[in-house]
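Task card 7
Instruction: Convert sequence to structure tokens.
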Amino acid sequence: MSSIGSVIATPHGPARVVTVMPGSVDEAGQKISRVLTTPLSQAGTQAAGEKDLSQSERQNLKQLQSADRAVKAEERKHAAVAGAYGGAPQYQYVQGPDGKFYAVAGKVDVGVPANTSDEDAARAHKAIAAAATSVSTPSSADFSAAAQAHRKAVEAYAQAGSRDDHGGLYDFSG
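Output:
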């Protein structure tokens, strides 16, 4: 199964990275089943309720909040355009200086169901290619996924055309 997604640059510094997997639902409505974390550094152990943030920590926090909004918006768009051929968005989180977690990267797994007709596979790959490039700033991975999906769509169109008993052409533009 391929993935389409985004990685937003984050401020440098110690952080706790959490990878969220699909399954149950978290407080934001995101489905998760398990959480994988990396160890915290000394600076990453700040209390969640700490109010006295330095100027650089406040700036870092604003960047993390902005990245969180951008990543989640992009992944929701990928998933919406992929439709039935995409899974739920998956995110990687970084712990901010306020102790909260902010999404800094994400992906949406995409794929075509097994035993799909050539015509349906072509349509599915076309939808996956559209989903990969549906965001305002597609990543190199998005362009790669789109190119791969386009190649598979062309192959499926060719297979469908070769099975046409009447020698006619199919119109898959819809």
